[in-house]
Input
Amino acid sequence: MRKQVISFRLSEEELKVLDEACLQFNENRSQVVSRAIKSLLTEYVRQDGKLIRQPYWMPNMDGKFNAS
Output
């Protein structure tokens, strides 16, 4: 998959939190941000016209899991 460079601004506090996450995961900033985006897209699902948080470990109303 071809990757492209993006740019966005973070406050000093947000950057500090990002760098702490990098240390915890032993990954660089790009990898941690990609992980966060994947998590966001996996955990939020549209249900009855609303966007709701549906963690992978929580079954939906049908008893099925939101597996990634």
In short: The chain has a mean pLDDT of 85. The helical segments are 12-25, 29-43.
